[in-house]
């Protein structure tokens, strides 16, 4: 029994609402592209769409991402990822766990493979501390 339970500090909390018809093709590359609902159709067809939420602080290495049925640790954040996540609910998650992002809008995640995501599933970012 734990007497002092550390409170989870949620940085970003939203719900997946739709999977673009070509999102599976992107997933074959160990990536998921995410956007707020209402993304232009040419982007939405490749993306996982979610409800809009406020990013309370920048995502940093060591933070946890809950996505669908998976929990992942952030290992790297591209220089534009926090800005686009804040403005459009957009980033590209790369499931490789490397210590550097390949693209400016990318967030590298480490965990047990690709998550299974469906409408109604959670998408959350938790502070590391």
Q: What spatial form do the alpha-carbon principal axes imply?
A: globular
Number of helices: 3
CATH topology: M1 Pyruvate Kinase, Domain 3
Helix/strand class:
mainly beta
Major sheet: arrangement of strands: 1-3-2-6-7-5-4-8
Integer tally of domains: 1
CATH superfamily: Phosphotransferase system, glucitol/sorbitol-specific IIA component
Instruction: Calculate the terminal CA-CA distance, rounded to whole Å.
Output: 22 Å
Brief rundown of the structure:
The chain has helices spanning 23-27, 41-44, 81-88, and strands at 10-19, 31-36, 47-50, 64-67, 70-77, 91-95, 106-110, 122-126.
Lay out the secondary structure.
Elements: E1 10-19, H1 23-27, E2 31-36, H2 41-44, E3 47-50, E4 64-67, E5 70-77, H3 81-88, E6 91-95, E7 106-110, E8 122-126
Parallel strand pairs: 2-3, 6-7
Antiparallel strand pairs: 1-3, 1-8, 2-6, 4-5, 4-8, 5-7
Protein traits:
3 helices, 129 residues, eight-stranded mixed beta barrel, mainly beta, disordered N terminus, globular, M1 Pyruvate Kinase, Domain 3
Q: What would you note in describing this structure?
A:
The chain has a single domain (11-126), classed as M1 Pyruvate Kinase, Domain 3. The protein contains three helices and eight strands. The chain has helices spanning 23-27, 41-44, 81-88, and strands at 10-19, 31-36, 47-50, 64-67, 70-77, 91-95, 106-110, 122-126. The chain has an eight-stranded mixed β-barrel. The relative contact order is 0.28.
